[in-house]
Specification:
It is built from twelve helices and 14 strands. By secondary structure, the protein is an alpha/beta fold. Strand 10, helix 8 and strand 11 form a beta-alpha-beta unit. Helix 8 packs across helix 12 and helix 9 crosses helix 10 (271-282). 50% of the residues are buried.
């Protein structure tokens, strides 16, 4: 077992897949810069090792990057492109939503269109609303796209390798704060199936469903609540689409209570989909109304104190848990 930060784990996955398959290539704004800066960045050293033919710095145009990915996938390659920040998905959405997501359906399933769109997400850096807004629910709402949001280095590596080999377009969202968080990663190849959640911490009293950076917040809250003899089960979805309903519902049927936690704004957030699945398929097992703990319905502030107010915290999560207990 090796200890890697998430940025290093992603780098390792990219490197291994590029060595395994010559059709895999990378493209994005400044993705070769890592050879001059932090070795913790996901694309550090890849331009030097694989050359400009397979690691392509692009113009500052998300629409062009997405169009490159769609065209390359149609031509039989396996592009892994980077949209620098999650909100910039809006600029690339025509090619991703109206073309990449629909091409396999329009072929009657006869053709595959493998491409991965990597995006940074997450507040906490004073970068302002244009860089920090979490839009995973937008992508999840579009049929034909798979949506992955890992919380640990091992999950990031295993899921990215699966995403690159998937015959469908995959939106792979990486929280910027997690790039620098270390964790154990198997040295042997481990593929994590897309669509498989994981119980990060078992508990008996309440289920908390979350993903990405908020898994750490949930685990912090679980540690504190354990001192009050409250057993909080933390379910990390890891993949929003396809969602692992079996793991989600099994946990709720066991605990009888549900809180959904995510950093994105509340209205239209993916917590609503999780809540709907539980209400439709496990309502009889609920012993209390479910709760959502999310970001508020405001643009992400750039001011550090206001940004801290925006971010869901362990304290806010614990308050919601106590409400339904």
């Amino acid at each position: 077992m090796q200890t890697l930060r998430m940025g290093q784990a992603i780098n390792q996955a990219l490197r291994e897949e590029m060595l395994r398959d010559p059709d895999v290539f990378l493209a994005g704004e400044g993705i070769g810069v890592g050879i001059h800066h932090s070795p913790l960045l996901p694309t550090a050293g890849l331009l030097k090792d694989f050359g400009a033919g397979r690691v392509k710095d692009t113009p500052v145009s998300e629409a062009a990057i997405a169009g490159l990915a769609v065209g390359a996938a149609v031509a039989g390659l396996r592009p892994v492109v980077e949209i620098m920040f999650n909100p910039f998905f809006t600029l690339a959405s025509d090619m991703i939503v109206n073309h990449a997501a629909k091409l396999r359906y329009l072929s009657g399933g006869k053709s595959s269109f493998p491409l991965v769109v990597r995006m940074k997400s997450g507040a906490g850096f004073g970068a302002g609303c244009q860089h920090s807004h979490n839009l995973e629910a937008w992508a999840a709402h579009c049929p034909g796209l798979k949506v992955v949001m890992p919380s640990t280095p091992a999950d990031a590596k295993g899921l990215l390798k699966s995403a690159i080999r998937d015959p469908n377009p995959v939106i792979f969202i990486e929280d910027l704060a997690l790039y620098f968080v270390p964790g154990p990663v198997p040295e042997e190849e481990v593929m994590i199936p897309i669509g498989q959640a994981e119980v990060k911490r078992p508990g008996k009293d309440v289920t908390v469903v979350t993903w990405s950076k908020m898994v750490g917040v949930a685990l912090e809250a679980a540690d504190q609540l354990a001192r009050e003899n409250i057993g909080m089960e933390v379910v990390d979805l890891r993949t929003l689409v396809p969602m692992d309903k079996e793991t989600l519902l099994a946990s709720v049927r066991k605990t009888g209570r549900l809180v959904v936690l995510h950093e994105a704004t509340r209205t239209g957030g993916f917590a609503g989909e999780v809540a709907a699945v539980v209400m439709e398929e496990a309502f009889a097992h609920l012993q209390a109304p479910l709760r959502r703990v999310t970001g508020p319905d405001i643009p992400v502030p750039a001011s550090p104190p206001l940004e801290r107010f925006y971010l869901p915290s362990a304290e806010k999560l614990m308050a919601a848990v106590r409400e339904i207990l």
